[in-house]
Every structure is written in C-alpha cells, then in structure tokens.
Amino acid sequence: MSDPIASPSERLHGLDALRAFALLLGIVLHACLAFFPSQVWLVADAQRSTWASGLFFCIHLFRMASLFLIAGLFAELMLGRKGARAFVKDRAARIAAPLLVFWWLAMAGLIAAMVLSAQLQGLLKPGAAPPPSPPLTLATFPLTHLWFLYVLMILYAGRLLIGALWRRLGTRGTRLGDRMAALLAGPAGPLLMGTVLGASLLAQPMWLAFFGIPTPDRGFVPSAPALIGFGLAYACGALLAGRRNLLDRIARQLPLHLGTAVLAGSTAFVLAGGSTPLLTPIADGGLRALAALSYGVGTFAATFAALGIALRWCSGFSAARRYLADASYWIYIVHLPLVLLAQALMQSLAWPWWCKLAVVVAGVSAAGLGSYALLVRHTFIGRWLNGRRLPWRASPLPARDAVAAH
C-alpha cells in the first residue's frame, strides 16, 4: 500500500475520491426510493423490490457521515493555510452562495417533476393548477437535498467559535486535540462516537430506525441527532487534519472497521424491518435501544471503512478520479430534480426494477457530466464552485498538486 500521507502540501487524492464517490452515490440513493416495498417517496414505481430498500440502507449508513468528516478535515487544512478571514470569504462564495442561488433552481425543477409525475399517474389533469403549497415557516422551509450545504455553514460557524476559545488553551489545547485525534482514530473511535450518536437517536420519540440519522431537509433548525452525528464526523475530520499520520492508522484498521460495520449495520437493518422497512418507530424499548446503538456504531465504522478503502486503493493520482471529483459538486447540486424527472418518465414501464434503476442512474449521471463539461468546467461557474476555471485546452494535471481547491 502506498503511503496516503506524503506531506502536508500534497493533495489527498484518496479523500478526493471518497468525496466524489459519496456525492455521486446520491443519485443511486434517491433513485432507489421509488422502488421501496412501501411508498416513501414522491414517485412510487410500478415495480418494487426489497433489494432497492436494502441498497438504500447500505448507502445511507455511511454516505453523509463520510462527507462531513472529509469536510471537517479539508476545512481545517484551509484554515491553517489561509486564516479565518480568507476561510470565511471562500466558504461564503463556494458554499453559502450556491445554496442561495441553486435552491431556487432545485425547487423549480422538483416542482416541475412532481407535476409531471402527477399528470402521468392521472392525479392531475394537464394544464390544471397544482394544489397549493403549505405555508412556509422556519420549521417547514424545504431545504431539499441542499440541506448539506446549510448544515456545513452551521458547523463552520461553530468551528470558528470553538477555535477562538480553544486558542486560549495554548499548548494544552494542542496536546488535548492530539490525544482526542489519536483516541478517535483508534479501534474504539467508532464505538465512542457511535454510542453518542445512538443515544441521540434513542432520545427521539418518533425516530424511524430504517432511515438512520434524520436528514434535516426541512426547517432551519436541524434535529439533535443530525447536529450530533454530523457534528461528530466533522469534528473527527478536523482533529485528523492536525494528525494526518493517523489516517494511515485508519487505513491499516480496515478489516476491523469493515467487520464492525457489517455486524452493526446488519443488526440495525434487521431491527429496522429488514427487507420490509418499518415506517413507524420500534415499539419495544430494548430493541429500539439496540437498533439505535447498532446504527450509531455502524455509521462510524462504515465511514472509517470507506475512508480506509479510499486511502488504500485511491491514494495515487488518477485523471479520471480527479475529473469526477471536480464534477461531483455540480452533479450533487442538480441531480435530485433530474432523478425525480427520470423516475416520473419510467414509473409506468413494465421493465424490471433493476433495469429502471440502472437507466435512471446512467441517464442522470450522463446529464450531470455533460452539463458540467459544457456549462461549468470551463466557465465562471466552474471557478465559482471549484475555485478554478479550466481552459478548454488545459494541460494535463500533475500527478501531485497542492491542496488548493478543497
């Protein structure tokens, strides 16, 4: 295995690859929702499968925690290089501004796709006005899938506040941070963080075990499990930024983390209904507590396993992976309306569910990559989202370039 941690100035290609993979998995995740055994999504396909819900569970277990861990690590590196003022300016331009601008486009696309789906199902006559939307409040405002950017801004603000207090500890704070990083990167890290997350899930009376950490896609006040779970992942990444040699330890522990993820995740899956997801809270208190603990531990074990896989086998430079890493942010922003539109167009076809899923994923991926190549990569939008604008005839990227655009 090549050393994933060569020097602080080199780009972490493995983490780039994991970030791209996790963002692109959002297409698969949302495409699966139409094929659940019971309707849980805006589009309910004529073909249903328990395999689709199982695939959703596996992806959802680690995807967002991985993204927040990487976000915390990259943010800490940027803070160290640029300082707080430049960091705030960069995050405002590349996270807050896209949230404000693309939310309108995402909502317009989602509404158009929902109207088309209702028309194709005969629930709405063509040309008829759609039913009125519920009133928007601070608790019901639809952040859509862009909630990830909103929660990131909350965590960035929290990091700056905590950092100002932490600096008062001086060298004691540095030593404490190093010890915490070493503890979390050790074998007990997923158990410790998972137990805290599990306790927060258990404290939610209406927690649906199959869907794990409640995604804060509605309202401006995220739930406690979302803030705790994603905040822990972000904090873990931030601590690892100061001890990047510990990433190699996590990579070496891959068999342990992968085994723990399979055991804990399988337990949570079975308790949450297995092939037929429970759409109500688990009634038995003991089983509910076990499900919460299993899901919490499984989340961080699976996140560390994904991190280990990326560091072991994707730590070298790859032009294809780098291109996908650049494109993944744009595809994440635009994918959900496209997924919903593709699901609406295919919902009445008598094809096997897996065939429909493959067509939806392939079609949305092609549309995302095509629009990125034509509209984003070589335009001001690419500079806005990725920190640089590439000319149409760009020279090949070097095998190792600085961590400048995370």
TrEMBL record:
Q: Where are the transmembrane segments?
A: 21-44, 50-74, 95-118, 138-162, 182-203, 223-242, 254-272, 292-311, 323-345, 351-375
Question: Does Transmembrane appear among the keywords?
Answer: yes
**UniProt cross-references to InterPro entries, sorted A to Z:** Acyl_transf_3_dom, Glucan_succinyl_AcylTrfase
Acyltransferase domain residues are 13-365
Q: What keywords appear on the UniProt entry?
A: Membrane, Transmembrane, Transmembrane helix
Question: Is Membrane tagged as a keyword?
Answer: yes
Q: Which top-level group of life is the source organism from?
A: Bacteria
Q: What is one Pfam family matched by this protein? A: Acyl_transf_3
Q: Name one GO molecular function term.
A: acyltransferase activity, transferring groups other than amino-acyl groups
Q: What is this protein called?
A: Acyltransferase 3 domain-containing protein
